[in-house]
Request: fold
Amino acid sequence: MSKQVCVLWIDEAPLYEQALARAGLRDRFEVHSLKVADKISDDLAARAEVLVGMKAGAFLKNMPRLRWIQAMTAGVESWLGSPGLRPDVTLTNARGSHRIPVPENILGALFHITKPYMDIALAQRESKWVKRMSVPLAGKTLGILGLGAIGQELARKAAALELRVIGTKRTAEPVPHVEKVYSPADTAAVLGQSDFVVLLLPTTPETENSINAAWLRAMKPTAWLINFARGALIVDADLIAAVQSRTIAGAVLDVFREEPLPATHPFWKTEGILVLPHIGGGHPDRRAIVAEMFAENAKLYLEGKPLNALVDRKRGY
Reply:
């Protein structure tokens, strides 16, 4: 029986080969490991049936036998926007690999906002004893726009800190540790109640540029916006204006339309906006976790069973 031709177009390909080997599947595939900087030859592209990659490439249109793509991230905008992606090709993502680190980093943002450790550290440089006040998180309202796997894990952790949690979900069904779940149509109700608004939405035609002047005005003037999802959700100029005018108290941003964020971008110099270098989903073992996810899907693929983390192209995630 001929082997399935699998192209690992990723710099950490050995992790994926090892994951296949541990699953007893390494010999079931004809594996070709390439660096992201490498070009996929026309001959290999013509034979490839499985592709593992970080981003879409122009070579997709030269892959007539391609049946399955495993993306390395939860966001798949570049894949869905590729003109070479045929409708019959199955696309899976790395949904779930950020479930632990992103909520932890969001909690770090909440502590940064309410605890004066940064100011204390800066004062220590000058040997200054400055009495400061820490603001409790307990009793505050956390609004989560996007109660998916990450949002639900964040809700669990936030509830343990005695935060009141509300949020939005495509289907407004009950979620553990969330006091009330709203539909996206009722987002304004979440914005108006929240002391902290966390963005965990995918980028879709419905959500792109949704955090505009109107939605920012719906927030409390004492509220903070925290974005660990996608930079395209926010109208940058509107957010800057809202922070400068004190329409909202401030923002913590971990994702941007262009990364690295250009040195000339006004976010850097806007008082009240904290720029993070996309630390949200990163952790030392994430690549190995995604490799294991791929190996599990590879087993299902060979058995002809539905794959995990399937992307719904209509929804965009």
DSSP finds ten helices and twelve strands in the chain.
